[in-house]
Amino acid sequence: RKEVEQDPGPFNVPEGATVAFNCTYSNSASQSFFWYRQDCRKEPKLLMSVYSSGNEDGRFTAQLNRASQYISLLIRDSKLSDSATYLCVVNRGNTGKLIFGQGTTLQVKP
Amino acid sequence: DAGVTQSPTHLIKTRGQQVTLRCSPKSGHDTVSWYQQALGQGPQFIFQYYEEEERQRGNFPDRFSGHQFPNYSSELNVNALLLGDSALYLCASSLADRGLQYFGPGTRLTVT
Predict the structure, then answer these.
(1) Number of CB pairs, chain A paired with chain B, less than 8 A apart
(2) What confidence tens digit (pLDDT) does each residue in B62-91 have?
(3) Burial class (CB in 10 A: 0-12, 13-18, 19+), B71
């Protein structure tokens, strides 16, 4: 079993839709959590950190449930420019070693 | 403010050869981490360099080695290349070994 698991998708949604991605992690020692965005053949870019209290950045909301070892990302009012792969990332014990999920691909259609 | 830079952008090598990839961290960062990303997969941690020493290592064989220079730039060396080493090699820099990591554009290595 992979340490960080995501549904690879693809998720195909119309512009304006709300879409949610889920991620589970298996190591309870994980301490830091992130969502990265990766465009085709480009490098991953930090989208947002994920905090226990939940956090929001514009149309993006991230949630963390430590008890269930579950992370989510909600995108509201999807734009064509949101089309990308979203990577769920954990940092076990703040070691600097990032552990990535496989990524979930989102395609927003006009 | 320069971001993370990597060279070369693309590279084609033959099985058994050796390759060196280079990374310059973002201005103000002192830590460099290397990742391998196979097609359709998330990046996998290779190792991290901080204060010119390897601090963390992932599950990669000794054929993968690295170095960090006094100016914080870093090299990744891979010996005895295998077809399975074909991937996008990403460098990420951070401030100290636990800071937020920012990625460079990567080097796409093809082994034939």
Answers:
(1) 56
(2) 999 999 999 999 999 999 999 999 999 999
(3) exposed
